[in-house]
Amino acid sequence: MTIRVIIVDDQAMVRAGFAALLSAQADIDVVGEAPDGRQGIEVSRRTHPDVVLMDVRMPEMDGLAAARALLEPPVGVVHRPRVLMLTTFDVDDYVYEALRAGASGFLLKDAPPADLISAVRVVAAGEALLAPSVTRRLIADFAQQRPAPRKDRSLRLKGLTPRETEVLELIARGLSNQEIAEHLILAEQTVKTYIGRVLAKLGLRDRAQAVIFAYESGLVAPGG
User: Fold this and answer.
1) pLDDT higher than threshold 70 for residue 149
2) d(Cα 88, Cα 95) in Å, to the nearest integer?
């Protein structure tokens, strides 16, 4: 199945470079591009891509506002693409809010070409692109911004088994699947199964939202 992609970035050279790279892949089809968030929304609604590569900072409408519009569409709009944020820095001021809005992760603009191709495939498959190192940076950002735990989320934790709760905590602390497997002395495939159960029980889309949920529920405290 071909993955349909659009690229939203205010730099023409970036759009052209990414489009050339992705179009060269047999399983990826670049179906549109836009120089700002507002036009990106229009192109997405017209072309129905599977994945939107969205720059964070753009004129007219930034990537955060555009991501929200795509992921929380108005009544009557059914299509919801997966959004992969593009950023120049490991953790941009807007990235945390983009993840809360439902973005599937983010990628550095200077990442190796192979990483971009892999990122599109990972996100299209319904998974989150949030590397453990980035998770740790996100946690540091969370520690500076987040309010007290939300009771509605802490109550939902009661539906998890002790092992599932432990896995969620380790995800929130930035451990990869392999690191969680080593820590709990489990097979990596077993860890993936636990993660799937956690996401299903909590109604979360991916790993990125699991990290945010763990902090907002009070399961893990910043700096703890």
Assistant:
1) no
2) 11
Q: Is 24 in a helix, a strand, or coil?
A: coil
Return phi, psi of residue 107, to 5°.
Answer: -135, 140
Element (H, E) at 32: strand 28-34
In order, the DSSP letters of 164-196 are HHHHHHHHHTT--HHHHHHHHT--HHHHHHHHH
Q: Could you give the C-alpha distances from 119 to 8, 106, 135, 206, in angstroms and in order?
A: 16, 9, 16, 14
Judge whether residue 156 has pLDDT over 70.
yes
Residue at token pair 């998974």:
127
Q: How many Cβ atoms sit within 10 Å of the Cβ of residue 150?
A: 15
Q: How far is CA 2 from the centre of its chain?
A: 21
Could you tell me what percent of the chain has a pLDDT over 70?
Answer: 83
Please indicate whether residue 164 or residue 203 has the higher confidence score (pLDDT). 164
Q: Is the pLDDT at 137 greater than 80, yes or no?
A: no
Global pTM? 0.70
* H helices present in 57-176, as ranges: 63-71, 95-101, 113-124, 132-145, 151-156, 162-172
Question: What average pLDDT does this structure show over 180-206?
Answer: 90
DSSP sequence for 33-67: EESSHHHHHHHHHHH--SEEEEESS-SSS-HHHHH
Report the length, in residues, of the chain: 224
Token pair recorded at residue 134: 């980035």
Question: Residue for token digits 């990972």?
Answer: 122
